[in-house]
Amino acid sequence: MVNQKYKEMLGEKSVIRQIAETATARRAQIGTDEVFDFSIGNPSVPCAPEFTQAMIDLYETREPHELHGYSPSVGLPSFRGAVADSLNRRFGMDYTLNHIFPTSGATGALAHAFRAVTKPGDEVLTFAPFFPEYMPYVEGTGAHLSVVPPDTKAFQIDFEAFERALNPNVTAVLINTPNNPSGASYSAATLEHLAQVLLAKQVEYGHDIFLISDEPYREIMFDGVTQPYPAKFYDNTLTCYSFSKSLSLPGERIGYVAVNPRATDADIMVPVFAQISRTIGHNCPSSSMQLAVEQVSDKTSDLSIYETNMNLIYDALVDLGFDVVRPGGTFYIFPKSLEPDANEFARKAMEYDLFVVPSDSFGMPGYLRMSYCLETEHAKRGVERLRKFVHEVYGR
Amino acid sequence: MVNQKYKEMLGEKSVIRQIAETATARRAQIGTDEVFDFSIGNPSVPCAPEFTQAMIDLYETREPHELHGYSPSVGLPSFRGAVADSLNRRFGMDYTLNHIFPTSGATGALAHAFRAVTKPGDEVLTFAPFFPEYMPYVEGTGAHLSVVPPDTKAFQIDFEAFERALNPNVTAVLINTPNNPSGASYSAATLEHLAQVLLAKQVEYGHDIFLISDEPYREIMFDGVTQPYPAKFYDNTLTCYSFSKSLSLPGERIGYVAVNPRATDADIMVPVFAQISRTIGHNCPSSSMQLAVEQVSDKTSDLSIYETNMNLIYDALVDLGFDVVRPGGTFYIFPKSLEPDANEFARKAMEYDLFVVPSDSFGMPGYLRMSYCLETEHAKRGVERLRKFVHEVYGR
């Protein structure tokens, strides 16, 4: 007699998973080299060598009880302080360790942020296209996720659509920059405009509207550009982060929420997060992982391959006549499908052993998400296969 | 504008925390050696050396992407298989990897177990004395935790009280053996009787009643006795575990739920857990930690110090005329207070730099929880201080 709500979720078919399973089956049939899997966003570069060295040093020099002992429910002070210092140095913030809450990846960070500043029945707004897991993340709290239609020209924000969607029931707005799936990075102008709208609406509605900023791709930016830091633009910001992508440690599940010191209730927010943990069964990340990551919180893996791959795929897509916005970061690109039903495009592509994800679950149909966590030589061959497919099927 | 529900939880004063803070302040004043802190249950022995060696080997031999890559949301198959094999070997079970769900410690395990087999409004029964965190763990799901009065003679189960408490709204029963705070280990006879009652009530009520068995202290058992394995006695059992105590890795937060293969819906339980994770922001434990622990899942740290300490404290308590049940395991002992208000006893003990926890938050007043995660020499001196305190204040 399993809880029916969760049992029903089993019936939801994940298109991404189905595609991944088909790709895996094909790899078994014809070999890894002949399958061009642009479906999975799984960091493909080795972790930062400084991380490995830090961990080995810890095992060599620290006593076991020091390395593996309980950390407080709000995390190790040394880790929290290192994150605060790093953010202050890089983005001109003034966090103290009391504003940093270590979490089990960005997933854990978001779980705390939503619960802290919304209540069941509230409305959370996000912008299409968006990471599909935001839906269970928000709905699991009892709040409701509403989706603002996209700005398809640049994947910034359609502010007219945003203002239409805002209403007094909205207590949080969720952004993800640079964005999965579009690869777009919100500009300073976009963040400035967003802050102005939110400030005005806070006054109009007479309550706070928190900006929850999900930034796991913050360090994967292209053309030498740095992602403007959203909390710098708006006081009521909770910044959610994971080291999965920057340090290439996706399985280690270490991240944090950073509370803007000027946010409402900033001083009690981290203790509130600790209370939330008690009700959802969250534990802060592995002690040894906190101790290693605190030493390398400014470092990244060599992330240059993502930009190399993005450029070659972007150029090919443009050349083939796709309608596509050049990504500012991440390891995703989001061209418009060559036929209205992106599922149909993806299905046909599979016949060429090309795996791409149709965009329906990202809150807007008709597009394709392509990930490029691939060796560059393999990505090049994938692009050649794409050319062949598009030529033979769509006559381009 | 923080969520009021969680903000109100901040106001709840944790007696354990207040005592710990006082002890910490005293240590700063008079030095660690003169403070006898029996309040904190924090594993004090080094982790199993086989674990350390396994982790160092992994860092030396595995590629970073293999060591730190994403594990599936239901965990690494190798870890799940190793846990299943270990439980089968040790307890005569027949788990497959499909019945094992890796979690962030026992906290994460319980968060999934409750949600999988109860729904909001249901009643969960547990037995006094109980770990106080069970209250937010259960209430956080929307179900209600009811407490069955204790069997104070042996801290087994008062079956008359249990039968009075059972009602058709009960869908889960939560046990913890060996028990925090009493140290009692449920005997085979207790577990047999418990299973008989539950089986009869399932028929009477026409619905499943799941046994959720929280077993983080399973390997800390005394007098050469092994904890009888609860799932062996009752099909509808979800076993929740953490390696925190057995391997002495409390900060690493790695545990699991094991689903009895004969439980209702056993085959979909782990996929259901994965759905629950999506709604509460749970990530399965660190990949590298899974890879290391799977190699040592049958090992333990040298846990003998807990038995040594228990014996010397138990003997002293008996000698001083305390009413006390001899623990079967854990690193706790639970004597009756020498005056009706255990808080008053604990307050007076603090004046002797003796720190013990009054039992009110464990669901029964008038007792004291003493932890003995201490160096044995320090525990001996603590016992002498206890003798002095009891002699001077209570004339014994």
UniProtKB/TrEMBL annotation, chains A, B:
SUPFAM superfamilies: PLP-dependent transferases (SSF53383)
Keyword tags: Aminotransferase, Transferase
Keyword Transferase annotated: yes
Cited InterPro entries: Aminotransferase_I/II_large, NHTrfase_class1_PyrdxlP-BS, PyrdxlP-dep_Trfase, PyrdxlP-dep_Trfase_major
Catalytic activity, EC: 2.6.1.-
PANTHER family cross-referenced by the UniProt entry: ASPARTATE AMINOTRANSFERASE YHDR-RELATED
Protein name: Aminotransferase
